[in-house]
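Protocol check, entry for the methods section draft. Step 1: assemble the input record (protein sequence plus ligand SMILES). Step 2: submit for complex structure prediction. Step 3: store the structure tokens unaltered in the notebook. Ligand used here: pyridoxal-5'-phosphate. Step 1 record:
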Amino acid sequence: MDLSRFPRESLAHLPTPLEPLERLSAALGGPEIWIKRDDCTGLSTGGNKARKLEFLMGEARAQAADLVVTMGGVQSNHARQTAAAAAKLGMGCHLVLENSIGDTTDLYLKNGNLLLDFLHGASWECHPTGGDLHSAFEGAVRKISETGIAVYAIPSGGSNETGALGYASAAAELVGQCDARGLKVDHVVHATGSAGTQAGLVSGLKAIGRPVPVLGISVKAARQEQKKGVLSLAQRMIARISANSSIDADVIEVDDGYVGDGYGLPTPAAIEAIDLFARLEGILLDPVYTGKAAAGLIGLIRRGRFKRGQRIVFLHTGGVPALFAYRDRFDVVSR
Ligand SMILES: *Cc1c(COP(=O)(O)O)cnc(C)c1O
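Step 3, stored output:
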């Protein structure tokens, strides 16, 4: 798999560490759990969007764009990392945001990721829940373009054939690290939302001929819908990065049992997972993505789906700033 023909900017600290979670593995009494620390990509506290943005911003620069526009929830990690990438490259950044959970507290609307968007100098517009955010996004791109500014539009989550290249590349990085340490991996588990991470991983693993199973824990969509989105992007990706190769529908594994009441609404299981990782491993998860993904991992271990003798890699996709916007979900008491 040769990705060198795609324009790329260096934005992430790579490779990210691959570490064993010894205390968590012992506490759960199941498989050996390892963690791939994509929360440590560096860019504005890190996260998975840094890998996608290396290729997206590479393309933006190749097209001589002055400003990038993207969209997402108020507490979007993708928006925050896009704002940081634009700042680093001396480009403008406009965010089309949606208050996805209808929380009108200052904590949610001014802290966490939004505070960081502000610090990185991005402009934004905030739309209420349930509107047509996509039309608002297209409207914003049109309006800014009409002023003569060269705009590069980035879809929600950076999940298209360009952004997902970041995770095709990550697949090769992970396999290289496992090979160097003699680790055979039975499954990779991570949070799946806008589908680029899973589609990139699956197509990258296929392209290098090392199809380790990847399970996406959905944070939003029902299983069939999520599978459809991941499969469609993975098929477009494999056509781009590997000749004579294809992705079958049955390699796209999605579990939607940990979404709870919806996107951005933490579940008791996610709060428990955040607690376990923080206390047993000194690792922070977030309430929107990685907390739910870890709840899925823990739930599947407790139900015997993943068991002793196996080795699982949990891909930590970042999201930590959102913790501060969800402070009121935790009963903070002195102990
Ligand atoms: C965006 C995001 C995800 C999901 O990745 P997708 O490529 O959108 O599926 C997972 N975790 C965090 C912290 C994210 O910000």
